[in-house]
Amino acid sequence: CTCVIEDDLILEQNIGTETVTYINHYLKGGQIMSIPQVEFDANAIRLERIFDNTEKMGYVNDGLVCEKVNNVYGKLMFGEVPEDRPITYASYVMSVDGKIAFEDNEVGPMIAKTNHLDKDGATADFWVLNLLRANCDGIIIGSGTMIKEPDYSGSAYDPDLLQARIDNGKSVAPWTVIVTTTGKNIPFGNPVFSQEEIPMLVATSEEGIKNLKQEITKEYYELPLVKTEEDKKKIKELIAENEGKIAVLVTGEGKNTDAAEMLKVLRAMGMEKVLVESPTYCHHMMREGLLDEIFINTSCIFVGGQATGIGTSSKSFPSTDHPHSEIVTMHMHSPHFIYTRYKMLYGIK
Predict the structure, then answer these.
(1) Which of 25, 127, 162, 168 has the fewest C-beta atoms lying within 10 Å of its C-beta?
(2) CB contact set of 80 (below 8 Å; sequence gap of 6+)
């Protein structure tokens, strides 16, 4: 859905059971928010949990405490947070044949929205993304995804989930972490850069920082890598001193970034859970053994051809060495939509 914010007008657009409300300054729970709001009908999007493996997985830590989550999805549990990096999980909606976008329209949500047999199931897919955004402390996204989806908000839209973040002691919105090896073509005109509640971090390479410094149009500051406890302290001090500015992080060598080093910094910044919304970087993190989970909502449509899948632009895993996975939970909305959570397993041959 796309709407335009004009001055202080509230614009509404009904899409199935959703009501999309945009307002420049929205007051809720004592917080001023310039974040788009979407009302979701809990009854229309309620999911049936048909498989639950969380106890076997040892997931004993509650996610966001929220009555709506319990009513629509059931408890969302997590495992222990590593000391040196956040829990990492990705989320995509996919066709039955594994495509995450159409060739003629590469906006990801279209895979759900064009399922004409279950419109509420498509809305439920969007809400699950909201749920995962609401639970995280950072969202990793590529500049290419931001260009394809110019309305990217860097936040959950559901006001009930936004309020739950506040009630659970979280900030209104997670960090938006933009990963770019080249440092080029970041859409600084995207509305997310103008939303004061959303902190921004650009992670790039040694070569990329040269380009970034030429193109960046916002005030920024650089964060150090985490080598010592003193580095962790310095990172927190820099964040506190530079509120409202874009944080910049350089990792790796030459044109390559280092995902493991970046995750160490994100953990030092206070992030315990990070959502990966870049399919290219998701595949890269799998290759590095750094993606813990992936949520895949299956829209029962077919796309075919050369349309984009996860990792389409990357080298395939060989038959001799590839990640495995185990189902954590599975939900259904109808026979036309399935919502599956997988735990990634590495080093199995």
Answers:
(1) 25
(2) 61
